[in-house]
Amino acid sequence: MIKVGMNLLLWSDNANYREHHHLLDFCKEVGFDGVEFHVGIVSDFEECEKFGAHARELGLGVTTVGVFDPNVCNPVSPDPALRARVYPEFKKFIDATLTLGGTLICGPLYQGLGYFSGARATEEEWRMSVETMRPCFEYARKAGIQVAVEPLNRFEAYLVNTVADGVRYVKDIGLDNVGLLVDTMHSNIEELDIARAYREAMPHIKHVHISENDRGIPGTGHACGKEVFDAFKDFGYGGYLTIEAFNLGAPSLMGALHLWRTFAKSDDQLAKQGHDYIREMLKS
Questions:
Q1: What string of H, E and C letters represents the secondary structure of 219-274?
Q2: What domain count does the chain have?
Q3: With contact defined as beta carbons under 8 Å apart, do 8 and 47 qualify?
Q4: Cα dihedral across residues 249, 251, 257, 259: positive or negative
Q5: Of 77, 233, 258, 278, which is the most exposed, with the fewest CB atoms less than 10 Å away?
Q6: How many Cβ atoms sit within 10 Å of the Cβ of residue 5?
Q7: CA-to-CA distance for 12 and 280, rounded, in angstroms?
Q8: What span, in angstroms and rounded, lies between the C-alpha atoms of 215 and 212?
Q9: Cα 107 to Cα 151: distance, rounded to the nearest angstrom
Q10: Which pLDDT score, from 0 to 100, does residue 134 have?
Q11: What whole-number distance in Å separates Cα of residue 74 and Cα of residue 129?
Q12: What pLDDT is recorded for position 257?
């Protein structure tokens, strides 16, 4: 059965339990099956324990997302020291995920976010990434955590842009706990036919971000139409369709993502409208 999730980045780029625990109550009330935490933001173990306990109390599942700051670590860096720092950073992500009660981590876990060499990706960079990340993903496997690697659009990454790139990467990693996260916003930029790309990659897809072409309210644009949902229903996909959207609540991300518009009267309204749209698409 397909589950519907909500990424808490909609409301805050500095989530903490004291100020934001009520968001889990709101998500449960709306009808979400799970919530998604950014483990680069919610990484203090006491905070993770509190959020995780509250999610369990409400019966909400947990997934997480993580990214690598290329100034801290980078699987495709020519500097071996930056590559060596990837494992301890990823281990923190997994340990935080476990403390939150999560079962899956997703994200562009193959290069530093926003890092570019100034040229096309090389086979050497691909090899470095695979060799750097395989031990990390093995750590996740031993911990019982699924990994969903996310192709990003060409303005945010350069190693893995298309769903086909992602399938190749997952096959080269060669671990049964590693698959794909597909995101409708990124696919809207990089795929000629989003639904077809997903159908072809479906056996490898472990997680989905429903994100409108403008990163606003799902269902108000053209990135996540009925044909996308039909692809998942026809295959019998049983994972999460998790909303990743932005509006007012994460100011530091607005500049990083070049989002200058307000998409809804409130963050809560965006989440509820997006949730109701996904449920309607799953019924139709």
A1: CCCCCCCHHHHHHHHHHCCCCEEEECCCCCCCHHHHHHHCCCCCCCCCHHHHHHHH
A2: 1
A3: no
A4: positive
A5: 258
A6: 26
A7: 27
A8: 5
A9: 8
A10: 98
A11: 9
A12: 82
- What is the model's pLDDT at position 43? 87
* Span between the terminal Cα atoms of the chain, in Å: 15
Contacts (Cβ under 8 Å, ≥6 apart) of 22? none
Closest CA to 180 of 247, 104, 101: 104
- The CATH number of the domain holding residue 108 is 3.20.20.150
Query: What's the pLDDT at 250?
Result: 81
CB 196 within 8 A of CB 190: no
The letter for the amino acid at 84 is A
Cα torsion angle, 253, 257, 258, 263, sign = negative
Q: 243 phi and psi, to 5 degrees?
A: -70, 125
Which residues on adjacent β-strands are paired with residue 104? Answer: 146
Q: What's at 5, amino acid-wise?
A: G
The pLDDT value given to residue 178 = 98
Separation between Cα atoms, residue 82 and residue 64, nearest integer Å:
23
Residue whose C-alpha is closest to residue 149's, from 100, 87, 191, 104: 104
State CA 179 to chain mean position distance: 12
Residue 42's domain spans which residues?
Answer: 3-283
Q: What is the CA radius of gyration of the chain?
A: 18
Residue 252: what pLDDT? 77
Residues in the chain, total: 284
Rounded CA separation 190/186 (Å): 6
Indicate yes or no: pTM above 0.85.
Answer: yes
| Residue bearing tokens 């889990």 | 24
Kindly state the tokens that stand for 270: 């965006």
Low-confidence ranges of the chain (pLDDT < 70): none
